[in-house]
Each structure stands twice: as structure tokens, then as C-alpha cells.
Design brief:
Number of helices: 15
Number of domains: 2
CATH architecture of the largest domain: 3-Layer(aba) Sandwich
Strand content: 15-25%
Structural class: alpha/beta
Family: Belongs to the peptidase M17 family.
Organism: Paracoccus simplex
Helix content: 25-40%
Number of strands: 20
Protein name: Leucyl aminopeptidase family protein
CATH class of the largest domain: Alpha Beta
Mean pLDDT: 96
Largest sheet: 9 strands, mixed
Keywords: Aminopeptidase, Hydrolase, Manganese, Protease
Low-confidence stretches: none
Shape: elongated
Pfam families: Peptidase_M17, Peptidase_M17_N_1
């Protein structure tokens, strides 16, 4: 699907945004007494998401009212009204609609982005029509920027939603090649035994039992400037390996390449906005299946990483950090200004913060502050957790440098982040995002299924970070 706005020169109907107060709906100037009386008779009180169609004198449709609820405090506004306008996109009749007003504090750009998000449908296997209502891009907003953000989100959702039978390492590679071709980027892929020749042994170890060869996908965009390297976990399906997952835990493992999907989506947005020319952007995706076969890696194995650190495998279901470690070590050798990893890495992160609030880890206070502020301002929430150094001993086993799955289960998201940090050190700043990549239930602008997380927070924070 391609996100789009309605033709601004075509006829359109007005959509009035209405706040609620102590005595009910607070109708904006422009709503006459006849329309207000009609709305009250229909029980319209401007509750969040409430819709009321307005008739014209001849019985045709004259417009609609949409409830925003009470005015939130400024600090709460981006999250409280997060994509609320998407409800209008989902429920309005067919046709072009325009925002007739913008109440104080309402973010028209964010509302329009939510409308675009609501039009997404994953229709690869079933015919699904998008909402029939199309929005005219609000006056004063950057429509091209909103479409680029929606395009990145659509790409990430499509990749995550596609089942592993049609989105294995080879298909993920093809998606990366398509992205590179669209935007004139160079791509290099190392597969199978070539991973050993390129000194990427842990990617090979994790993926060698899969039906498709493991691979490292390396994309470089044609730009100059500060070096930004994005590393995304591309485990296209995770059985848990020999430490096999129970069925309930395996049900959503097609989404275990959500980190790769998110960095590809972010790159799509950056490229559409022409921002890749001013940075040296590189993407690294270790793409594997964590499967079971005669040559699967085993609990108790000691793996030697690209960086030379040895890793004791205490659980084959903690494979994501293994493939990321080799990719991070490769990325770090160039000492980029900013190195970011994104991965659907730990259940501990979901237990701590739930599916909607992904944690990130960063030692650079200025970088972390920019990311968290941008996420709040643009309704892409993230929350900083610490690289808590007293837990370093938990990832240090007796017979190897590192343990991929410390026993006890405490602080699982932190110990995973500490493990990854061991493979960095030259980059000026490093941030790791432990995302979920999935919307477990439908919400405004966010249908159940694959989801982008952290992409827009990074998009808006990058200008501050990379100056």
C-alpha cells in the first residue's frame, strides 16, 4: 500500500473537532445553532472518538463533528491524543474530508499521520479495503514528511506481518535489495559458509540449521557526513533452537525480525525525505532462522565472536544477542558517530514496560535525552533503562568471557543490553532498543499486528544528535 492524502483541489466535506467541557460539547465557532441542536439530540458530548454526522437542508451530508474529549495538560497531550483522529478515518463515510478547525493545542500533523496510519491494511493474503474516508492534508503541515513517515511504518508492518514461509532470510534480503534499489544504495550480502570467511562466526552458528542460509545484509547509502549505523535483528523465525519454545511462545515468532523491519522502515523514511545525503548511513541485518537440525548449535557450546570474545551458550533461545554481537562488532570497527541496535530481544522488557513502551539503553545522557524527548513529542514513546554495571558479573560465566543467558531470570533486558555493549566501544555513542514490534490489540491508527517502534523518535532526534 502507498499512503496518500486526498486531492486538495477536489470537493471535500468539513470535519469539526470538538472539545468537551463540564456542560458537554464545546462547539467551535462556525457550528450554527441548528447543527449544535442536532448534535445534542444525537447524544453527542464530544467524548474522545465520538462522531456525529451533520445533515444539510436537503438531507445530504454537510459535514461531521468529531469528539476530542477535554483539553489535556500540555505535558500529556501527545500521548493522550495519540492518533485519536484515526477513529474518524475508520468510521467516516466515503469521500474526501478536511479539518475545518484546529482547537488550541491540537497537533494537526500528528492527527493527519494517525489518519494515514489508519489506512494501512495487510492485504497480501486476503482482500481488505482501506477506510473509504480520505483526508486533505491540513494546511500548514508538511504532507511529504507525513507520507514518508507513513511509508516507513507501512514497510515495517508489512515485513513483520508476513509469515516466515514467505519472509525467511532470503525474502528479507530481497526486501533490503528493493529498498537499496529504490534509493540508489549499495548492498553486499554474505551467506552461508562465506560468513566464516568474513569472520562472522556467531551469525553462522545460530543460522546454520535453518532451511535457508544465514546471511549478513550490509547496505550503504550514498551520503557523506556523520556516520550513522543501524543494526537490526533479523531472526525470521525463532523456534528457540534445541531449547525449544512451547507452542504459545512460538506463535508470534514471525515477528522476531522486527528490529530489521524497523531499521528498514526508518531508512525508507530518511531516504524519502532526502536526509540520507547529509549522513553516512549504513544498515546491517543479520538474517537467520533459529531452527532445529543435526547441525544446530547446542546448549553448552562455546562460540568465538568476531570481536574475539568467547560466549558460553546456556540457552539457544537467547540467539538474538549472538547474531547482533557479530554485526555490532563489525559496525563498531568504523567508529560511527552513532550506533543503534534494534531488536525484539527479551520478554523481560515486555514484563517491565509492556508491549507499547519499548525500553532503550544509552550511556550518552545528551543522546538519550534527545531520543526520549522526541519520542514524547511525536507520540512514539520510548523509555530509558540503565546499563547497570553491577550486573556485569551476571554475564560472566566460569569458562568463557560471556554468558548468553544468565541463570536466575533477574534483569533480563539489562543483562542482554550489557552483553551487546561488550561488542561496541569505538562508536561515539551507542543506543540499544528492545522493541516488541507488535500491536497486540487494535488501537487508533494501530491495527493488531506488526508495528513500528522508536522509528519516529529517532527520526526527530537525529538532527540534534548528529550536529
Amino acid at each position: 500500500m502507498i499512503p496518500e492524502f486526498a486531492d486538495p483541489d477536489a470537493p471535500s466535506l468539513p470535519l469539526w473537532l470538538v472539545r468537551s467541557g463540564e456542560s458537554g460539547a464545546e462547539f467551535p465557532a462556525g457550528i450554527d445553532s441548528r447543527s449544535a441542536n442536532w448534535a445534542r439530540a444525537q447524544g453527542f458530548t464530544a467524548k474522545p472518538g465520538q462522531l456525529c454526522l451533520l445533515p444539510a437542508g436537503d438531507g445530504s451530508l454537510a459535514g461531521a463533528l468529531f469528539g476530542l474529549g477535554p483539553a489535556p495538560k500540555p505535558a500529556d497531550r501527545p500521548m493522550r491524543e495519540r492518533f485519536l483522529l484515526a477513529r474518524a478515518a475508520e468510521n467516516l463515510p466515503e469521500g474526501a474530508w478536511r479539518l475545518a478547525n484546529a482547537p488550541e493545542g491540537f497537533d494537526a500533523a500528528l492527527g493527519a499521520l494517525g489518519w494515514l496510519f489508519a489506512r494501512y491494511r495487510f492485504d497480501r493474503y486476503k482482500t481488505l479495503e482501506p477506510p473509504r474516508a480520505v483526508l486533505v492534508c491540513p494546511e500548514g503541515t508538511d504532507g511529504a514528511r507525513l507520507i514518508a513517515m507513513a511509508a516507513g511504518e507501512y514497510l515495517a508492518r508489512d515485513l513483520i506481518n508476513t509469515p516466515a514461509a514467505d519472509m525467511g532470510p532470503a525474502e528479507l534480503e530481497q526486501a533490503a535489495r528493493d529498498l537499496a534499489r529504490r534509493h540508489g544504495a549499495a548492498i553486499e550480502v554474505h551467506r552461508g559458509e562465506a560468513l566464516l570467511a568474513q569472520n562472522l562466526p556467531m551469525i553462522h552458528a545460530v543460522g546454520r540449521a535453518g532451511a535457508q542460509e544465514p546471511r549478513l545484509i550490509d547496505i550503504r547509502f550514498p551520503g557523506t557526513g556523520p556516520r550513522l549505523t543501524l543494526v537490526g535483528k533479523g531472526v525470521c523465525f525463532d523456534t528457540g533452537g534445541l531449547d525449544i519454545k512451547p507452542p504459545a511462545s512460538m506463535a508470534l515468532m514471525k515477528k522476531d525480525m522486527g528490529g530489521a523491519a524497523n531499521i528498514l522502515g526508518l531508512a525508507e523514511t530518511l531516504a524519502q525525505l532526502g536526509l540520507t545525503g547529509g549522513i553516512a548511513l549504513r544498515l546491517l541485518i543479520p538474517a537467520v532462522e533459529n531452527a532445529i537440525s543435526a547441525n544446530a548449535f547446542r546448549p553448552g557450546d562455546i562460540l568465538t565472536s568476531r570481536k574475539g570474545l568467547t560466549v558460553e551458550v546456556n540457552n539457544t533461545d537467547a540467539e538474538g544477542r549472538l547474531v547482533l554481537a557479530d554485526a555490532l562488532a563489525l559496525a563498531d570497527e568504523e567508529a560511527p558517530e552513532l550506533l543503534i541496535s534494534m531488536a525484539t530481544l527479551t520478554g523481560a522488557a515486555r514484563v517491565a514496560l509492556g508491549p507499547d513502551l519499548p525500553p532503550f539503553f544509552c550511556d550518552d545522557d545528551a543522546v538519550a535525552a534527545a531520543i526520549q524527548a522526541a519520542g514524547h513529542a511525536h507520540a512514539d514513546p520510548v523509555w530509558r533503562l540503565p546499563f547497570w554495571e553491577p550486573y556485569e558479573t551476571m554475564i560472566e560465566p566460569a569458562i568463557a568471557d560471556l554468558d548468553n543467558a544468565p541463570s536466575g531470570g533477574f534483569a533480563g533486558a539489562i543483562t542482554a543490553a550489557l552483553f551487546l555493549r561488550r561488542f561496541t566501544g569505538r562508536a561515539r555513542s551507542y543506543a540499544h532498543f528492545d522493541i516488541y514490534g507488535w500491536q497486540p490489540g487494535a488501537a487508533p491508527g494501530r491495527p493488531k499486528g506488526g508495528a513500528g517502534q522508536g522509528m519516529r523518535a529517532l527520526l526527530h532526534a537525529l538532527p540534534e544528535i548528529l550536529t
